[in-house]
Amino acid sequence: MVSRTGSRSELADLLRSRRHRLTPADVGLPPGTRRRTAGLRREEVAQLAGVSATYYTFLEQGTVAADDQAQAETVAPALSAMVGRLDPFPAYLKGRRWDVLAANRAARALFTDWSARPPGDRNQVWWMFTDPEARKVYVHWEKEASEMLGRFRAAAARRPDDPDFTGLIERLHQASPEVRSWWPRHDVAPVGGGTKHLHHPALGDVAFQHTVLQVADHPEQMLVYFSTDEVPAAKLAALADGIG
């Protein structure tokens, strides 16, 4: 298990690395007066993040204590039912650690049957980097996996002392050479929609538009929905029917 001190130190390293690599122009700020060092100033990052400069400085120094108690995630029944009703278009709900909390039949047919996996493996990042089938589903696996790890890293940075995160990160390092290679880059990526090129034996290669929606009552939960004009809804429904 990654230690509390180690996880805070890693967060501090991540923040410093990203701050030094950004310029005011990158984030829409004026260049300002002459700078003694490259990158943004701490107070500029704090302003962008909506926190005090003092609090941000504590984060960069790795001296902020955090609640390290794991909290079980719950899914509102109405939200779970809505995910199901989005069939035949794939949809799933992911939690704060990117565990798949609910998935409709189409999503289980296209990606993996999350409900059939061991409880500890019902995680999108774990599946992406450890299941060979993921490399078949994502047409551009390396690009998608790298970006997913960047988005997951941004989520992990918000919970440096969460044992659920530190445990998963440790498992990923042990299991995946790509994670071991890419994690030290300190790359992060924002969560957002876009186009995903996915493959299924019954569909071939399909471009899906995916939309990510934040759950108001649980802001760390995200509803991810996929749609496409390349495959008739009836064909997607037949795929979903195969899951039962």
Describe this structure in words.
By secondary structure, this protein is α+β, with helices and mostly antiparallel strands. It contains eleven helices and five strands, in the order ααααββααααααβββα. The chain has a five-stranded antiparallel beta sheet. Helix 2 packs across helix 3. The longest helix has 18 residues, at 4-21. It starts with a helix and ends with a helix. Mean pLDDT is 85; it is low at 65-69.
Tag the structure with descriptive keywords.
single chain, 11 helices, 15% strand, alpha+beta, 244 residues, 5 strands, five-stranded antiparallel β-sheet
Q: Topology of this structure?
A:
Elements: H1 4-21, H2 42-49, H3 53-61, H4 77-85, E1 91-94, E2 100-103, H5 105-110, H6 124-130, H7 132-137, H8 141-157, H9 163-175, H10 177-182, E3 194-200, E4 204-215, E5 218-227, H11 233-241
Antiparallel strand pairs: 1-2, 1-5, 3-4, 4-5
